[in-house]
Amino acid sequence: MKATAGRWIGIDVGSITCKVAVLDAQGACLSSTYERTHGRVIETVKRCMGSVRAELDGQPVLGCGTTGSARQLVGALVGADLVKNEITAHVRGAISLQPDARTLIEIGGQDSKIVLLRHGIPSDFAMNTVCAAGTGAFLDQLAARIEVPIQKLGALSSASQQDVAIAGRCTVFAESDIIFKQQTGHRVEDIVAGACRALVRNYLNDVGKGKPIAEPVLLLGGVASNDGIRRAFSEALGVPVHVPEQHKITGAIGAALLCRDAGLTGSSMFSLDEIAASDFQTKTFLCDGCENVCEIVSFVRAGVAIGYLGGRCERWSASEDVVCSEAVAQSQ
Q: Rounded to an integer, what distance in angstroms lies between the CA atom of residue 315 and that of residue 332?
């Protein structure tokens, strides 16, 4: 593709965090932002988009893509060009970081996934079930329980001197076991290391499910910052597990690169000022058009519904890989 001046933007918003990556015309990441949403997705996205203003440096936005569990909402908020699922975005981002990757292990706040690759193409994948014991939420609960910042869990686990087994098949049982270990005098460092092993064990049982994990193995997501998790995966799998420098924003990078791959030369994204000033809300209602009685989420800007999500038919929602925008026809 012929190089063109401009910027590509990728936004990945999951259950806990918002990630924004700004790439130059050639696809190199210029800057990124990573912030917890604390349940305030719209406000956090606006703030994160404002924080990358300097990197745009007057350059035109060539394309903007969104991914993550809140991808449709965010796509409507910013006027994105593409909305892609997490698997597609993470694969594209990971391949840009390590082209020969064979296995992607991605752990988010409330979901986790595994993707097996052949020549850069997904050959198999799986996501977690309803249990949160193999996700970042498990570590959040652990950090709150032992009253330490979650960023320090990795250092604590590295200081462990004794194996302590923690039940990890369920977050409720794991928390009970952690309380018991505390009451019986086990060191916090050993408990944290045991919890890391429990998370990995649950992930492999629930998500991995005996899949043939081949090297190179990449560990992605915010949880990958915890060296105890990386070490536990390496010990469980018997192979090195690599954590790319940009492991937190891989999905955002992938969303931006997917726009670049599509050959876009101009974006439908609203200006940063428009995004910041947008009167954007979400509302829900029940559709009584058939016996399904679907709960529909309506995206509203300035009092006008611009898109819908949640229906089991095409009456209200477009394809999940097409952003809800003014182009989405409102139901009569």
A: 10
